[in-house]
Amino acid sequence: MEHIVTVQGAVTAFADFMEPTSAELAAIELESPVIAAEVDLLDAQIMTLDRPANEVDARRVRRARNRVLAARRDLANGPAGALLPGGAA
User: Fold this and answer.
1) C-alpha–C-alpha distance, residues 69 and 80, integer Å
2) What whole-number distance in Å separates Cα of residue 5 and Cα of residue 11?
3) What is the pLDDT of residues 49-69, one digit of tens each?
4) 1: helix, coil or strand?
5) Whole-model pTM above 0.85?
6) In whole angstroms, what separates CA 68 from the centre of its chain?
């Protein structure tokens, strides 16, 4: 009879030290408006996949695209220390 044993390295591969650092979490928090705007844009684009796009759909996609651009602009023009080179994001 063969014994089944676990490989300790595989079991502890995702130990506590693998959690995101506070700098990484801060970068995610800083980018969350951009992420939310991109999700809204994707939702607007998905709505137009299964039917012909009408004027309301085109307006919805255009507004969502403008929100993405505004969120990216705000992120790029944010505080000087927000986007440090070699940072988490």
Assistant:
1) 19
2) 11
3) 988 889 999 999 999 999 999
4) coil
5) no
6) 12
Phi-psi region of 86 (alpha: psi -120 to 50; beta: other; left: phi over 0): left
Over residues 13-32, the mean pLDDT reads 83
Gyration radius of the chain over CA positions = 21
Burial of 83 (0-12, 13-18, 19+ CB in 10 A): middle
Q: Which pLDDT belongs to residue 2? A: 73
Residue 89 has pLDDT above 60, yes or no: no
- CB-based contacts of 44, cutoff 8 Å, min separation 6: 57, 60, 61, 63, 64
